[in-house]
Amino acid sequence: MERLRAVAGFGLAVISMGAIIWCTMAAEPVPPAAVPPSMLEADSWNLPATRAEPGVERDREAFTEVTIAPASAADLAGVPEGRLDERRRQVKVTIVHRMLMDSTDSLAGTLRQGAEFPRGMRRFTDDGFGAVKVNGTVLAPASRLPPLLTTEDGRTTVRFTVTLLRQVRPEELMRVDFNAPTARPLLVVHRKVTLRPGEWTVLRAASIEPDREERQRLEFTVGVYPVSVTLAQGSYGFPDVREEDDFSWATALGVLTAVVLAALLLRALGGEWWQRTANRELAAGLALAVPVVLLPAVAEEFTLPAYVMLFGGLPLLALRHAVQVLPTGPQWTPRDALGATGVGVLLAVGMLSWSYRYGQLPGDTLLTGSGVAAVAAAGSAVVLSADLGVRIVVVRLAAFAAGSAVALLALALWGKALATQVYPPDSVRLLLAFCWALIPVAAVAVAIKQWTRGAAVVAVVVSLMVQGWPSEWLDAGSWSREVPGQVVPHIGELELTPAVRGVMGLLLLGFLLLVLRLRRLGSALDATRSSAAEATMIICLMVAYLAPQGSATLGDINVPLPMLSITALIAWVTARWLLTHPHPSVVEPGDQEEHRELIRSALHRRLLLASEQELYRAGRGRIGTGELSMEEFGRQRDGLDAALRRHGGHPETAFATAAGCSPWHNGVCGFVVSLLLSLPFLIVFGVPAGADLSSFVFEARSVIALPAFGFLFGYFYPRVRGTQPMTKALHLMAAALATELSGYLSALAEPDLGAMDKVQVVAIIVGKVALVSIGLGLYWEWRIMHLAGEPWARVRNVRSLRSLATPLLAIVIAAVTTAATSAAGQTVDRILRGDETSQQP
User: Does the keyword Transmembrane apply (predicted)?
Assistant: First the structure.
């Protein structure tokens, strides 16, 4: 009987596998997606007349003339002085659109009405003729003359004139893009374009067949497709080899930043971490994997090994390390297995639907094959597990087998589609995201010392977001067929390929692990004296202030080196200055009750000191008038001295303690308060945006940088310079201000930048830092009193002008910052946001 059941079970399994193989072999190659007409037009020079859309007037003619010339002093009269750079070329681009039509044309009557002028003129010219874009720094908004209409011999001509002012470096190329018209119906099918380059030389002409090509004149005809012309300055000689200084401050700072971060990381891990064999093996594996992952940056032929290492080798290495370190394996239940099977079946159904929609398999073949595979697999599971005698277990195994068969069929069909280079575009990113998710699953498990379902689910979701879900995966074309030439998102000059997204995700994961380490170390009150916690905190602060500024080569080796902002190094120096200072002996309370007693004793001591001061102040006059004898004065003074000695002769330090809270709790409070105080400045610095989670977090560094100082303030509050909340806050203000201003040194040192622009930039930065620091100090003062169960008025009397000085200073700073913000012009916005160029006309 046992042999018969085994034969039947394995026979059903073979039938299920045979159905999967049969469907895979019968699958036809999916035809590639048709290239959109706009892309075909971009590669053709001639526009067939059959492409004319209904409603286009055949007797209309359109002409565009673009003239490039040096900008004169009169042209630049309205440009703010701070934007002009004498080392660059100021260029005036004049665009003239002309359209000829019959005087009886309805469009001529519409133009004569002048509706929505001047707002509607830009929309009319950009949509009807196609927007003309010119790169370079925008010196002033585009200016447009009123449309000029003339009629002669029954023909009406309308003329539109647009003037652009740009500023370019001598070695910079100028690109003029003639975008396709978007108005429907079309005003015209063909456009005659004349380009007069002046002192510039036409270097590249994409999608253009010239009608006339001369030194000072280029004529061509375009249709409903975009074209572009790239020009180089004719009087500038481009050297074959650019001579650079042997010493580069940017490269030196980049190397120094990397060395400091590496040294701090070694100090943060500590000697105990390196004593474990599993950790040393992990470090060795990472040392071998990192060069392979980064090789495509210098040699594109190593892209495939980099993908295999990033999405295959590193996940396996992370899982192996987690299995070695953790005492037990994942405690997954049958419900977890069924849940994972359900997710796999949903994805499989999506792939099978794609196979049916695009003709990989006919519907009846697909249904028959998947049904036979699922039923046979379920039957095999039932037959082989029937001797267990537990019905629920048999049912679960049957469901798991059936789902696995359907998923295997979908995976086989996807593999065949992948082999024929026609597949759902985002399906590859989905698979890579699931593979990459194993890294954060293992990393978080090691960080929290256990496997958890919640962490696994969150890691998978974060992995999908790192690869662009859901912002990019909701596109209708993402799950159709791959279209050649699709635009890949960029962050700066970096193309966001799956590998780049994965590397950025690893950097984000590393930052998260450092924060989790701070949480683990910060659970004990003595963490403020831990060198590992201090090094970890400084690393997080430096990473928040890292700002890549392009790349350079190291020596004669052609290896790109990211140039990092000096702000990271200044953050390291100022953080060390805040925490390395001889502090008075601080008695840390073990709980809230001890904190309450220390605060009450401090308040009593303050009362005695105030009484002694009042005795000396009032006693001088009372002794002189005879109201107080010397003996009585001496008795009162001795009584106050004795009371002060009973409360200790050392300086007051009750307001310099952690208030009985853990460093992690204090750090989170400091971060949240600092973040809330700095949020209004998003109006000036801009709201972060990004194509995926990693790029969004990268853009959000400016939002969390200053709150990171607030986190340091709370985490290491007993070690921060000063003995009172406000004195500590003022020291924090000095450190944060030096770090924030260091990021604008190059702009503030620019000689052509106006003095008022510099004053506004400094006022905004100083106002932001001061408001956050003073606000955090006031909050901390209130929090210490609140935790002690005492009213805040006992340390800050609202009826005292001296006590109100600090809140009033914060209000004045906020008012001045608001005024500077409202008065900030385009130059100040460009400096604060870091935008150097714009392509908007």
Answer: yes
